[in-house]
Design goal:
268 residues, four-stranded mixed sheet
């Protein structure tokens, strides 16, 4: 009976994996930077990460990844956060372990083929990455193609030039706002337009981003709507997921739908 159950389980996992592979249509540029930057792990109408399941699964399979190192530093309860992500991702055919369980985080990163940096507070996350001397290490490994990167919310913020356009409160002060820099611009996750019927009279997201754009050190800002995924594939940037994005430059704002090629941002 045990053998039969094991065989059934193995067959089911194989079927799921083959089914996902049949939907993986994009080509990975070998030995080049590879990243999936999600606006959030949650999206209205979907359970945790379900809107991104196919993209994440295809992305990891194309890069021959079976072991995924999760970085829970954006939240304080590392065990609980890692367990939550493991419960979702492990059934997809990948084994998730938490970076916090390794005595030497840098060595764990050096040995990993793929990492997923989760969301939470961006300042807390970046501070912890600096504490463990991981910012430059992750940048180098992603840029030379030896480490695949997935980020969500705060994990997406730290993948950019700096965290100046995070939505989070500065609950701790990292050594620098400069981040990993997988892409040379800024991202605003969870971007949302002002609702005209809203009675709230405070500043809108556009106004906040506009304040940043007035600064001499400002970079272009890509506002990722909930459900948007930015796929970094070498020198290619494509918008994927279930929602598009908004690009802010000095005195300009341009909408881009799902499927748009915005690779020109790598040359800004």
């Amino acid at each position: 009976m045990r053998l039969s159950l094991f065989t059934l389980h193995s067959t089911l996992i194989s079927h799921i994996t083959n089914s996902l592979r049949s939907h993986c249509s994009y080509t990975i540029m070998r030995m080049s930077r590879q990243a999936l930057l999600l606006s959030s792990s949650n999206c209205h109408g979907y359970s945790l990460l379900q809107f991104a399941k196919q993209e994440i699964s295809c992305f990891l399979q194309k890069n021959d990844v079976t072991q995924l190192l999760f970085v829970p530093y954006a939240q304080n309860n590392h065990d609980e956060y890692t367990r939550k992500m493991k419960d979702v991702i492990d059934p997809w055919g990948f084994n998730v372990t938490g970076l916090h369980t390794y005595p030497d985080p840098a060595s764990a990163i050096k040995s990993a083929k793929a990492i997923f940096i989760g969301g939470g507070n961006t300042f807390l996350l970046l501070n912890k990455l600096y504490e463990n001397n991981l910012v430059n290490l992750i940048r180098e490994k992603v840029n030379d193609g030896s480490l695949v990167y997935i980020g969500s919310s705060a994990g997406t913020n730290v993948a950019t030039k700096s965290i100046h356009t995070t939505n989070d409160m500065p609950i701790i002060y990292p050594p620098s706002f400069e981040a990993i820099g997988i892409v040379p611009f800024n991202i605003n996750p969870h971007y949302i337009d002002k609702i005209e019927t809203d009675t709230h009279k405070g500043e809108t997201r556009d106004q906040r981003i506009g304040e940043y754009m007035e600064m001499p050190h400002a970079n272009p800002v890509l506002g990722l709507r909930e459900g948007c995924i930015l796929h970094v594939n070498g020198d290619s940037l494509l918008l994927k997921g279930v929602a598009g994005a908004v690009l802010f430059k000095k005195e300009s704002k341009v909408e881009y739908p799902v499927g748009a090629d915005i690779s020109f941002l790598l040359n800004q």
